[in-house]
């Protein structure tokens, strides 16, 4: 996420300009909403962040998490399916997928996603051996 300015068009209101600091505040507020039992408000904020930058993978992960907390696992999976890029699906995506599948009682898919999460987590935790001179 760059430090530039994002502009979106709102019907009847003209353009809305959102600075980098505004997006950071939106993320923080969404996180606070999630941790205080207001996932619907977090969904709205993360969805707005995605509208500002459709390639924002962190906002997508936050949106999926908020959907899970709002008991909308199907919506979470739909968002997670849009995340593409280097290193994806990463451990966080696999964990969110496992939680969504478990909520949908798709236990086989949940187990596969959880195994993928564990493998990715373990691979990231392995220490790198120092180079020898």
From TrEMBL:
Highest taxon of source: Bacteria
SUPFAM superfamilies for the chain: TPR-like
Pfam families linked: TPR_19
Protein's UniProt name: Tetratricopeptide repeat protein
Species classification: Bacteria, Pseudomonadati, Pseudomonadota, Betaproteobacteria, Rhodocyclales
């Amino acid at each position: 996420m760059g430090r530039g300015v994002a502009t979106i068009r709102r019907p009847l209101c003209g353009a809305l300009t959102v600075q980098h600091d505004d997006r950071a505040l939106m993320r923080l507020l969404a996180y606070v909403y999630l941790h205080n039992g207001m996932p619907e408000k977090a969904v709205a904020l993360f969805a707005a962040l995605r509208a500002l930058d459709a390639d924002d993978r962190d906002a997508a992960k936050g949106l999926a998490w908020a959907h899970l907390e709002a008991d909308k696992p199907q919506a979470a999976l739909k968002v997670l399916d849009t995340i593409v890029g280097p290193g994806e699906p990463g451990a966080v995506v696999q964990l969110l997928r496992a939680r969504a599948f478990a909520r949908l009682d798709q236990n086989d898919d949940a187990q596969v996603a959880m195994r993928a999460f564990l493998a990715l987590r373990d691979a990231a935790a392995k220490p790198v051996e120092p180079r020898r001179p």
